[in-house]
Amino acid sequence: MRPTRAIGTVTRGTTNPNRLRRMDRWIAATHGAAIRRAEEPVAVDLGYGAAPWTAVELLARLRKDVRSDARVVGIEIDPARVVAAQPYVREGLSFVHGGFEVPLTGGVRPTLIRAANVLRQYDEAEVAEVWARLTARLAPDGLLVEGTCDEIGRRHVWVALGPEGPLPRTVTFATRLGSLARPSDLAERLPKALIHRNVPGEPVHAFLTDFDRAWAAAAPYASLGARQRWITAVRTLAETNGWPVTDGPARWRQGEVTVRWEALAPR
């Protein structure tokens, strides 16, 4: 039986147009094949906030780059935000009241759940339970993308989990390179499971320290642009420092790098 009330607590609801464009671009590139194979290509924008910009943009991205019949359901725990979103309803886009129970009708299991800036207000000890609850709702080939970004979408860090849950598969760091002084600037956008672990002795701190050193060593490439400097630094991380980077230059050029979760997991 579906719970009689939404599971979770109301967030601040802060949002802006284009805030999640880097996350959406990564989803389309890395999870697009699974969405194309899905019997029901349904994506959930969980906790879209005080205005539904991110849900509208996710639908546009998926229909343009992945499947023309993709559907997006925006889920919000604040009923007033669901009411406010109704003028944006259109074919393929709807908004419902709910939380971590992911209340989709007809027994539908989403092929994607995106939850951005939702867990920041929760305790670190609560994260694993939320991950387990959300991954249990996924379709067999589904993906949960959960993380944090700044207010205008320049810097993101997110984890990706599959239906096997509750541990992530990967951690992705993404940034607008022109805004970056050093890679450790992304530390303030680490997801809840990692943000308190950026201290000496923890793997994520060691990773960001190595990344800063690789970035400094790649300074001569800055004359070719921040993109070439980033690519060189990421290559050093993978080939010299031994960090298990899972993507390649095509994603690095976008100001991204993805690392296997177990390399960064809290001790």
Describe this structure in words.
The chain has 267 residues and is an alpha/beta fold. 34% of the residues lie in helices and 17% in strands. The chain has nine helices and eight strands. It has an eight-stranded mixed beta sheet with strand order 3-2-1-4-5-6-7-8, with helices on both faces. Strand 5 and strand 6 (155-161) form a beta hairpin. Helix 1 (21-37) packs across helix 2 and helix 6 (203-217) packs across helix 7 (226-239). It is globular. The termini are far apart. The model has no long low-confidence stretch (mean pLDDT 95).
The order of strands across the largest sheet is: 3-2-1-4-5-6-7-8
List low-confidence stretches: none
Total strand count, please? 8
Distance between the termini: 37 Å
Order of helices and strands: HEHEHEEHEEEHHHHEH
- The helix count comes to 9
What percentage of the residues does DSSP assign to strands (E)?
15-25%
Q: Considering DSSP H and I runs of 4 or more, what fraction of the residues is helical?
A: 25-40%
- What form results from the Cα inertia axes? globular
Q: Gyration radius, to the nearest Å? A: 18 Å
Main sheet overview:
8 strands, mixed
- On the 0 to 100 scale, the average pLDDT is 95
Secondary structure class reads alpha/beta
